Amino acid sequence: MNHQVEIVRREFEKLLADVQLERVDLKLITLDKDVEEFAKSFNLISSLKPCSDDSFESPATILLDAYQSPFLVYKTEAGHYRVLSGLLTFQKLCKAKYAKNVDSTVPCLILSRRPKAQLRRLILMNDVVRPLLKEFVGISADTINHTLSYLFTSVDQPSVFLSPQWQSLFPLVKSKTELCKWLHISTKSVKLK
């Protein structure tokens, strides 16, 4: 097994050992600062937008989304909750003004502590790439190129597939060819290193 994957696995096991599922008032929940910075710099909703229009969804169906995929949060000393995972559903609930309802509680998986920066980043990356790569969403090659380059490359690390974060999340996908084979798309349309 990849050494990096093993380290991350052990860290996640420790982090998730005491996780609790609770209903939390949405008014007490905000994005973790790293997640908020990401949300401000990258329009995730537009890149993953389904064919349907959110305005036709009722707050009840958006709430059902939250129950099917609870937010992963940690609690601050002040008693507030910070979202690490569940960004799309959180944004939809805020857009639907769900928090103005009398009972605006949502399910949350509460971590016993704030994870280290590396784990917070991996949690965010997995939250973003899950609908893109794992949940059978019909997505364009341009979106794949843009999203994966944004998340996994830097000036120092221009290759998605050599990124330590990519290797931790997808250790068996080591090249553009393997990615395209996995997603059943043409290698001609994906422009990743």
What is the overall pLDDT average?
83
What percent of residues adopt helix (DSSP H or I)?
40-55%
What fraction of residues sit in β-strands? 5-15%
Radius of gyration: 17 Å
Q: Could you give the count of β-strands?
A: 5
Query: What is the overall number of helices?
Result: 9
Q: How would a crystallographer describe the biggest sheet?
A: 5 strands, mixed
**Would you tell me the structural class of the helices and strands?**
alpha/beta
Number of domains: 2
The residue ranges in which pLDDT falls below 50 over 5 or more consecutive positions are: none
Order of helices and strands: HEEHHHEEHEHHHH
Strand order of the largest sheet: 1-5-3-4-2
Ends apart, CA distance between termini: 23 Å
Shape: globular
Question: Would you spell out the secondary-structure blueprint of this structure?
Answer:
Blueprint: H1 3-16, E1 20-25, E2 29-31, H2 33-41, H3 44-47, H4 59-68, E3 71-75, E4 81-85, H5 87-95, E5 105-111, H6 117-134, H7 141-152, H8 164-169, H9 176-183
Parallel strand pairs: 2-4, 3-5
Antiparallel strand pairs: 1-5, 3-4
Written overview of the protein:
Helix content is 47%, strand content 13%. With 193 residues, the chain is of the alpha/beta class. The chain folds into two domains: 113 residues, no CATH class; 66 residues, no CATH class. A five-stranded mixed β-sheet has the order 1-5-3-4-2.
